């Protein structure tokens, strides 16, 4: 089962593009190997609007969001998670508009206690603080538009998706992306939770997924099911690799991710580690000490 990714490079940067009666997007010019064509910041509503994922803190992007909403009232700034391509513009946009920032937590706020010492993650926005926390089921808005938080830990421990019932649309942040699989980086990223959070989406009444990177996804259930089966297949590959004597992350990545461009190998290593931690939790493999990129793994 292949994942029906959409590879559409025709993106307009730093200008509002109409997507549906209630949704516009302004895509930041921060394209790259992890951000694809750039971070999409969504404007939801007309006249009174919410902004989902204000994106990177660059003057061009903040100016573009303010220009796109000129004459409108920004009532809320919602943040799916605290990665630097999603959350840093929240504070300057809040200062410029007076709108409060809502999110699950500061970075790492959803992580299980007792996972060991603090590890600095590349790409995390440690400065982020919401004015108000949003948890699973919390919502803002009214009959015109409503956005409901769906807690989806996995990509990060504080990841929220936002459901817009008026358009049966889910804003998926980086939980589900239109162009590639999400990167799961331990310790804040957690593969077991990620899989649970994918399954959770199957219960929603959905017509569209709108990820922050890549095109809208028109057939949500099939897409999500394909993502789940892809991860399960990858897990089996890793289990098979360990059983076959490939006992380090480096050896596994060389074998399993051979088709992946080398620039993405550090991310692939961390994804492999995320699977290994999940497999340890399932009592299928073991390693001495706490699992790291340098540990040696064997089947149980
Ligand atoms: Zn992210």
Question: How is the topology of this model organized?
Answer:
Elements: E1 16-20, E2 23-27, E3 40-44, E4 48-52, H1 59-68, E5 73-78, H2 90-97, E6 101-103, E7 132-133, E8 139-141, E9 146-151, E10 160-164, E11 169-173, H3 191-201, E12 208-211, H4 220-243, H5 249-256, H6 265-281, E13 285-287, E14 297-299
Parallel strand pairs: 4-5, 5-6, 6-7, 11-12
Antiparallel strand pairs: 1-2, 2-3, 3-4, 8-9, 9-10, 10-11, 13-14
Helix pairs in contact: 3-4, 4-6, 5-6
The structure holds zinc ion.
Zinc ion is lined by residues 81, 83, 155, 174.
Q: Supply the helix-strand structural class.
A: alpha/beta
Strand line-up in the sheet with most strands: 1-2-3-4-5-6-7
Proportion of residues in extended strands:
15-25%
Q: Which molecules are bound in this entry?
A: zinc ion
Distance between the amino and carboxyl termini: 29 Å
Taking pLDDT < 50 over at least 5 consecutive residues as the criterion, the unreliable ranges are none
What's the quick description here?
The chain has helices at residues 59-68, 90-97, 191-201, 220-243, 249-256, 265-281; strands at residues 16-20, 23-27, 40-44, 48-52, 73-78, 101-103, 132-133, 139-141, 146-151, 160-164, 169-173, 208-211, 285-287, 297-299. With 300 residues, the protein is α/β, with parallel strands linked by helices. It binds zinc ion.
């Amino acid at each position: 089962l292949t994942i029906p990714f959409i590879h559409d490079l025709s993106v307009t940067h730093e200008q509002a593009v109409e997507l549906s009666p209630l949704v516009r997007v302004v895509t930041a010019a921060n394209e790259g190997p992890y951000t694809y064509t750039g971070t999409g910041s969504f404007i939801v509503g007309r006249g009174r609007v919410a902004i989902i994922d204000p994106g990177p803190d660059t003057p061009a992007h903040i100016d573009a969001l303010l220009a796109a909403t000129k004459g409108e009232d920004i009532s809320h700034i919602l943040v799916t998670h605290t990665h630097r391509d999603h959350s840093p513009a929240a504070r300057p946009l809040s200062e410029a508009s007076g709108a409060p920032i809502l999110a699950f937590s500061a970075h790492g706020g959803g992580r299980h206690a007792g996972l060991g010492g603090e590890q600095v993650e590349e790409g995390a926005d440690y400065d982020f603080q919401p004015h108000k926390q949003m948890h699973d089921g919390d919502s803002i808005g009214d009959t015109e538009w409503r956005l409901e938080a769906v807690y989806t830990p996995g990509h990060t421990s504080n990841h929220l998706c936002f459901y817009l019932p008026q358009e049966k649309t889910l804003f998926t942040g980086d939980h589900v992306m239109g162009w590639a699989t999400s990167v799961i980086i331990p310790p804040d990223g957690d593969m077991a939770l990620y899989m649970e959070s994918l399954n959770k989406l199957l219960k929603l009444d959905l017509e569209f997924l709108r990820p922050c990177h890549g095109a809208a996804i028109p057939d949500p259930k099939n897409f999500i099911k394909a993502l789940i089966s892809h991860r399960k297949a990858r897990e089996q590959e890793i289990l098979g690799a360990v059983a076959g004597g490939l006992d380090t992350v480096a050896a596994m990545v060389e074998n399993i991710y051979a088709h992946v461009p080398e620039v993405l190998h550090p991310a692939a290593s961390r994804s492999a580690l995320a699977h290994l931690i999940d497999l340890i939790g399932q009592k299928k493999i073991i390693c001495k000490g706490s699992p790291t990129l340098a540990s040696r793994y064997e089947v149980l």
